[in-house]
Each structure stands twice: as structure tokens, then as C-alpha cells.
Write a structure and sequence with these properties.
Blueprint (H helix, E strand, L loop, with lengths): L3 E7 L5 H11 L3 E5 L28 H14 L2 E3 L6 E3 L6 E6 L6 H4 L4 E6 L2 H9 L11 H20 L4 E4 L4 H16 L10
Parallel strand pairs: 1-5, 1-6, 2-5, 6-7
Antiparallel strand pairs: 3-4
Helix pairs in contact: 1-6
Length: 202
């Protein structure tokens, strides 16, 4: 059975999780893995020169554990239970599509290398700040965190990503969830329906 790994990346509050969950629901042969599951404990996340804990950098994530989960799926076609506080693998007949959702998918080369399709959602500063401020986080965002850390790191990470990765499909996160879903869903169906020899496998 061919494996298809799809990345759903982008800015914080850009609509990644909504899109990924809609795809998972519509694709019976898919499972979803969320990068946020792999954040290190709060006390292990460093405080930067900006005075904020550095949650928006790759070192805030246990990427080794994330890659082990991805590789296990690639090898065994096991199911990843993202509902658990920690990723748990259990044996299953296995779907053939792995949806990976997160904010730093393409900045980490080992992870970027496994994707067959890459999507990236972006929204303007004002809309991103509005959405971010309307949500409750654990731990909560300290005052000034969005302008002092979150948005500057988004711009920095995106610039780095654009220098290194070319084959990304950019999506407008201000479009309706249904529009975004329809576009990506059709793309995935076209890829899945290709003859096996045309599917990119890693």
C-alpha cells in the first residue's frame, strides 16, 4: 500500500487544525498527527533575549520523538492517537495517508523530507492577532507576547522556510474553511488516484 504524507503548516491561528480535522473526517484512510503534541514541558522551554519563553522555535519541540512517530507510521502503518497527552502507537490495518499539522513543519529538514504534499496557511497580522487574543492558552500568553515574540518569530521562521523549501502550496487563511478544505481535498484525491509508480514515496 502506498504511503502519502501531507503537511498542513502555517501561522498560528491560521486555520491549520480546522483544515486538518476536516480532511481527516473526509478521508477514511487517513490519520492526523499534530506537532503541538510534541512541545517540551514548560520548564524546559528557554527564555529568550526578548524576555519571553521561546515556544515559537524548533527547540521548544521534541522533534526526535515526533520523527520517531512519523517513521513508525511509515514502517508499520500504525495509527497515531493524537487524543492522548503523549503520542501512542497501536497496531491497526492502517490507512495510507498521514496528515501532519503544525507551525514549524518545513523548517526541520528530516520532517520536511518525508512530505509528498506541503500546504501553508497564512493570514494578515491584524487577523492573526485578533484570533490569537481570542483564544486561551495553557500556559497563558503573557502581556505583549504576540508583538514581542509570536509574530516576529513567525516572520523569521517563514523567511527561513522560503529560502530552503520551494514546493509549498500557499493558502489564504482568510478564506472560508469550506473553500480551503475543498482545494486541499481535491489535491489529495488527485494524488491518491495516480498510478502507484507516480506517487512520491520516501
Amino acid at each position: 500500500m502506498e504511503k502519502l504524507i501531507v503537511g498542513i503548516g502555517g501561522v498560528t491561528n491560521g486555520g491549520k487544525t480546522t483544515l486538518a480535522c476536516k480532511l481527516k473526517k473526509a478521508l477514511p484512510n487517513s490519520i492526523l498527527l499534530c506537532q503541538d503534541t510534541f512541545f517540551k514541558p514548560v520548564n524546559e522551554v528557554e527564555v529568550g533575549e526578548d524576555g519571553f519563553q521561546q515556544f515559537d522555535v524548533i527547540t521548544a519541540l521534541d522533534m526526535e520523538a515526533m520523527m520517531n512517530t512519523v517513521y513508525a507510521w511509515m514502517e508499520n502503518m500504525t495509527t497515531v492517537h493524537i487524543e492522548q497527552k503523549a503520542p501512542i502507537l497501536s497496531e491497526n490495518k492502517g490507512p495510507n495517508i498521514l496528515l501532519v499539522e503544525g507551525f514549524l513543519l518545513y523548517n526541520y529538514k528530516p520532517l520536511n523530507d518525508v512530505f509528498n504534499q506541503r500546504y501553508y496557511l497564512s493570514i494578515p497580522y491584524e487577523e492573526c492577532k485578533r484570533r490569537r487574543c481570542s483564544r486561551v492558552y495553557d500556559p497563558p500568553d503573557p502581556p505583549g507576547n504576540f508583538d514581542g515574540h509570536v509574530w516576529p518569530m513567525y516572520l523569521r521562521n517563514r523567511k527561513e522556510m522560503e529560502k530552503k523549501v520551494a514546493d509549498i502550496i500557499y493558502l489564504d487563511g482568510t478564506n472560508s474553511p469550506d473553500e480551503l478544505f475543498a482545494q486541499v481535498y481535491e489535491d489529495i484525491l488527485r494524488e491518491v488516484q495516480k498510478p502507484p509508480r507516480q506517487l512520491l514515496t520516501n
